[in-house]
């Protein structure tokens, strides 16, 4: 079987899991002033904080894992690889972030109104959740350099690159926000972790996964004790703890990955859901509040469902026309697919 075209359904299950965690996180909101505006002492806030070191790092690690199955060398040239990523990531980033900017500006009930004078700035600095697309583009550029230098071709070099990536953010006294550079640095170790797990599985076999999973469990227990206020951690310990927790927990998830049909289905539409989930989550919350429905369980459940399913429905509609599929989802070679056939094949 051709490794470059093989799709591991267990990785798709993990992608679906990451998708649910990400959308749920945006439904809840990162603070009491965003999303559902839940208080800091609520159950939903506890759940948000419990997965904060796993959500986007897991997405990034999966990207690294999948990249290793079809690295830049399989495209024939760096130029061809970058051109493909430009179509797939950059075009939807520009189009969809513009649509979201307009929606935030015009629709009543949104949590934040953007500054109209800063419209063009959203393409150069992190805006809403689109910062991840900027960061992942920078990560791909960095990985191309590592690949061309053959650093990541061997296990020792790839592992050295991962350890080096943990130290690079310490070089900068102030975070570089242009094109979400500082976030790319934060996520690069997880991309390399996914690449290593995919490219060198035999090097991480035997007792190593059990040791890593044991360490992950210990770190999760420490983090949970911190969330429950059972102990206080010095501020300078929190970020290293979260980084170690994320790396160990995500490697454990990748190593012991599983098949789950609903998650596999969601995983197929991960990019589409990532792009458009906020339209569904915010739209559902605003509509429910207009109907004077404020039940936490109802708002969370309906918003989560809308955030996951609305983008899939939009994708099925957009793929009927090549131009809409290109602009909204970056599919350059889109073909017209009958809607009934598309639904049945999903």
From TrEMBL:
| Keywords attached to this entry | Acyltransferase, Cell membrane, Membrane, Transferase, Transmembrane, Transmembrane helix
Which portions of this protein are annotated as coiled-coil regions?
none
Domain Acyltransferase, by residue range, is 10-313
Q: Where is the signal peptide?
A: none
Where this protein primarily resides, as one coarse class? membrane
For this protein, what is any one GO molecular function term?
acyltransferase activity
> Pfam families, alphabetically?
Acyl_transf_3
Q: Where are the transmembrane segments?
A: 12-32, 52-69, 89-107, 119-143, 155-172, 178-196, 208-229, 241-259, 294-314
- The protein's name is Acyltransferase
